[in-house]
Amino acid sequence: MQSVNVTNVEQESLNPYEIVQKQIETAASILKLPENITEILKRPKRVLTVNYAVKMDDGSIEVFEGYRSQHNDALGPTKGGIRFHPDVTLDEVKALSMWMTFKCGVVGLPYGGGKGGVIADPRHYSLAEKERMSRGFMEAIADFVGPDKDIPAPDVYTNAQVMGWMMDTYSKMKGKFSPGVITGKPLSIGGSQGRNEATARGCVITIKEALKELDLPVENVTVAIQGFGNAGRIASRLLADLGCKIVAISDSQGGIYHSEGLDVDDVCVCKDESSISNYTAVERHITSDELLELDVDVLIPAALENVITSQNAERVKAKVIAEAANGPCTPEADKILNKNGTLVIPDILANAGGVTVSYFEWVQNLANYYWTEEEVNDRLQQKMTTAYNEVKEISEKYAVDRRTGAFMISLLRISEAMKARGWV
Ligand SMILES: NC(=O)C1=CN([C@@H]2O[C@H](COP(=O)(O)OP(=O)(O)OC[C@H]3O[C@@H](n4cnc5c(N)ncnc54)[C@H](O)[C@@H]3O)[C@@H](O)[C@H]2O)C=CC1
Ligand SMILES: O=C(O)CCC(=O)C(=O)O
């Protein structure tokens, strides 16, 4: 288990499973929830581990280990993405499924939380190998998931194409077209308008609300973004369109900085060709860690967990942190950021736009009736602003940080459902 040394305080855990348990305990203790509710919510209900063989292009076989965790289904079927990453662990997938439960609760979706992960780096495989790896994982988990049971979606290093392959495999196995088994699909096979942009769009909605609260005009606000994939890249474009200055961006290879603002479209062209670290129209190249400590108005961690810890939180200068990524700040970092007056929009709120439009996609699949992009975006706007203001209200009422407030809202909704079902 990972941990870092912290002077004068206990060792800081970087295990996401321990972190989410701590977050649940903090919120539950303020609400004085009965212990049996917390005990149920502190661990996933079901976890599946699979090992499956994939034939490589050269005829060799590689065996991949993957997981699917279903945390809690009191509010409805479990829901959450599938990640392909070399550093995936079982504890990480469990934690991500738990964050999904609380995320769905914050935005009031009729879902519990699930998550999947495969230990693999898809960047090292050909398209055909990636297809077999994706289909193989769905084949291995097909009896565990389903449109009214557990509905996957994209996450790190998976995308609409991967969802399309997985939906096709599931449909073939069940002998019927089953678009509702997975969301984030290509539009031609039951994907929703707006799903590809939804995580970033939802995040930008919360940033606009936060800036309003801080009396900061959106125009010319400076922004640094760590991670330039689905969440980070689209957020950069949406914010640039609003007149924000995107001064720093990084991906897994490194980062770039320009105090006058980067040309986001140009950076996208460079990223499509290689990595943004090869982009030359910059003031300087920076590391992804340096990016976190820049003097900017808004910081968007949009890559992986545990990037802001007790080790660097004191040096973070942003006024607002919008957690597009899941779990970027540890509880120790939260304490420091709160003491310093940083407004942290927690992951379970800031990145809830993705699962919200996934829910819209699933609803459209079940009804076999499709909405316009405008309808999707209007409904997303409504859900995100309502959730933002509910979190703000409860946080102010109980004098807690926004993460604790967001967990409290969810805990109230989930515990009510658990009681209504007679579980507690
Ligand atoms: N895709 C979605 O709909 C949602 C994604 N999220 C979260 O957003 C985060 C990013 O996910 P996506 O954008 O979907 O993944 P993605 O696979 O589209 O992009 C990931 C990006 O992170 C970069 N990256 C990886 N390691 C990095 C590092 N050490 N430093 C800087 N950049 C690094 C990659 O180069 C890539 O640009 C994850 O935490 C994910 O769980 C949350 C909600 C929904
Ligand atoms: O769209 C979804 O169902 C879930 C996306 C996801 O994995 C997340 O919100 O972390």
UniProtKB/TrEMBL annotation:
PROSITE patterns in alphabetical order: GLFV_DEHYDROGENASE (PS00074)
GO molecular function: glutamate dehydrogenase (NAD+) activity; nucleotide binding
Originating species: Pueribacillus theae
Site positions per UniProt: Important for catalysis: D155
UniProt feature coiled coil, ranges: none
SUPFAM superfamilies referenced in this protein's UniProt entry, alphabetically: Aminoacid dehydrogenase-like, N-terminal domain (SSF53223), NAD(P)-binding Rossmann-fold domains (SSF51735)
Protein name: Glutamate dehydrogenase
Entry keyword Lyase: no
UniProt xrefs under InterPro entries: Aminoacid_DH-like_N_sf, Glu/Leu/Phe/Val/Trp_DH, Glu/Leu/Phe/Val/Trp_DH_C, Glu/Leu/Phe/Val/Trp_DH_dimer, Glu/Leu/Phe/Val_DH_AS, Glu_DH, NAD(P)-bd_dom_sf, NAD_bind_Glu_DH
